[in-house]
Amino acid sequence: MLDVDICNQALYRLGVVNPITSLDEDSTEAAILRSHYAPSRDALLSAFPWPWARRVVALARLAGEDHPVWRYAYAYPPLCLRILELFNAYAPERVDVLDCQAFLADEVRLTRQGEQGLPVNYEITSGTLGKRILTNLADARCTYIHRIEDPLLWSSLFQQALAARLASDVCLPVTGSDSRLGNLQELAQRAYYAAIGAEASETRESRRRRNRYVKARR
User: What domain of life is recorded for the organism (predicted)?
Assistant: First the structure.
């Protein structure tokens, strides 16, 4: 689906039978969706460590950014919606920390690991060059949620979850009533859990295949 298709799915859930042809068209529905679409998309992307939205990058150190507490300042990754973990070559990325099944079951927290297995403390602030990450970790890398704007790169269940979320987000301005809001929010929550459940299942199956492969090579 394209962004306009997702928006029309949201409108259908609200009982609006006439679809929009573009988010830029001159209509009340398009104007409302235009103002809500990106914030709703980014909020949903940020809510869960979707495997297809995760990126790993070596952070760019900022020169001349002295701080009384932190030793290093790094530029915030472009199009980053949420930092998941900081690490470096001495403390490899922890796969279990980003495990979808564990996240879904709420069995782990996103523990930040650093040198000698100690927690990596960091602070995100705004500096002269924009958003920055302050930490005592040298040569820092991070895993983060990337802002993916192309709907064709999302999973189909994520597309459905976004349509359901949009419907609840624009319910009042589109319909002028909040009588259906509670039901729409419940449906949005169900669609969200269906999407992350599918991701967790796929991750679990991928891990099983990898483990079988490793055992076969021994």
Answer: Bacteria
Q: Token pair for residue 66? A: 């002295």
Structure confidence at residue 119 (pLDDT): 58
Tell me the residue length of the chain.
Answer: 218
By three-state DSSP, how is residue 100 classified?
Answer: helix
Q: Which long-range contacts (CB under 8 A, 24 or more apart) does 203-212 make?
A: 203/51, 203/99, 203/100, 203/101, 204/100, 204/101
Q: Which residues, listed in sequence order, are joined to residue 123 by a DSSP beta bridge?
A: 134
- 5 against 211, higher pLDDT: 5
pLDDT above 90 (res 150): yes
Determine the Cα–Cα distance for residues 6 and 152; give it in Å rounded to an integer.
11
User: End-to-end distance of the chain based on CA atoms, in angstroms?
Assistant: 44
Closest CA relative to residue 200, chosen from 144, 89, 208, 183: 208
pTM score, whole prediction: 0.81
From the number of C-beta atoms within 10 Å of its C-beta (0-12, 13-18, 19+), residue 129 rates as middle
Mean pLDDT computed over 120-144 = 88
Mean pLDDT to the nearest integer, 40-51: 96
* Helix or strand (DSSP H, E) at 124: strand 122-127
